[in-house]
Write a structure and sequence with these properties.
The chain is of the alpha+beta class. It is built from ten helices and 21 strands. Strands 10-7-9-8-11 form a five-stranded mixed β-sheet. The two termini are about 35 Å apart. InterPro entries: Rhodanese-like_dom, Rhodanese-like_dom_sf, Rhodanese_C, TrhO, TRHO_N.
Length: about 450
Amino acid sequence: MRGCFPAPAFISGAASSAITQIVWGRRKDPLFQFSVWSSTSSCLVYNSNKHAERRRRRWLSLSEATSRGRGGLQQQQCECESESREDNEWVVVNFYQFVLIKDAEAEVAKHLNFLKGRDIRGRIYVNEQGINAQYSGPSRDALAYVEWVREDERFANCLVQISAAPTGHAFPKLKLRYKPSLVQLEGGISHLPLLDPSMRATPLAPSEWRKRLEAANGSTTADASTQNPRPNYILLDVRNGYEWDIGHFSGARRPDVDCFRSTSFGLCQPEVIAADPLANVDKETDILMYCTGGIRCDVYSTILRQQGFQNLYTLKGGVSHYLKNEGPLQWVGNLFVFDSRLSLPPAAYKPEAITEPNRVEVSENNTFARCYICGLEVCELRHRNCANLDCNLLYLCCMNCVEDLRGCCCSKCTTAPRLRPVLQGPHRYEKWHTYRDLISQSKSTA
């Protein structure tokens, strides 16, 4: 887990955060809309067109929202509320798009120029293969950037996912730059045919994904017309092991990977063949791949395609898109996210979903929901970083072990020279100088 997480963090209270979603009308419509939904009793709608009033904001009641038509989003409008309410909403935005960008450096400059004076923080990477963005900010700035990006026909159809950030920024600063690889993988990805949709896996809508899992897991909600209740396929979790440890789809095997960079499924490497779920698998077997937002699956599916695997399928929009549409059906636990929130429960994505939670037996051979130190089942499905700055291990831990080892992952780390305090409540670790200065001040006072 070392070196794989973008920043040291420990956040509590994530279970109460609301997840929102963005819904776009067809870009060619005279006036397209997108909506930000939350678990509160309102829905924020933005209308946008070059020849119409820009960013006209209205708050709608969720109960008055109607279904989406094929020609765009159709909703009933209600009285506007104060502008200040919207400005106080903080969101996290995620999207990516594989598309040819001839002059990527110039594209970066355009984006930097647009974001001048806007309160945006996060990771936005651009290169010749497209864009990959995860950022946070007040909704006014965050959604203005989305709107501006989608005015470019190259990005008009990208799936944008938005979630609430109850405590403000989820990233420490903005990194908007050219990057050779939109995701980090050993050997890079610039040589992969990512711009050719036929080389990537076939995307499955969340509803289709759910039906396939229900059939395989023998769920009573499976479609009665299914001819083969237990289809022959492999459910491949294309994430890291520590992500699986707090949440995964029923039937998915824990990936023996601590950083996506080193993923080698299906590559028949002798040293990892025992841990490879695709080792010795018939190349015509259906492989269902999933990750958090979809980009890692899209990238890795091109590698598997080159290895001869023929029937590759991905979960469109990843787990976050699935939970928003289907709720926690066939999902166990929370969803790990790569920002300061760390962990989000399914109820945050779809609070109205009322289902019986899937149960997974926690056994000695199952690392799901287990404390990294003592091996007992943990109550809170979120990771924390080791208090030893020079270790910074990301791990699950029960509160007894947190207290016994003062926030460290092992007894050795408790004697480290750069030891941060045990974090309590909804906080995250800051820069080392903050704690160094506090320690120095404490010693001088003593």
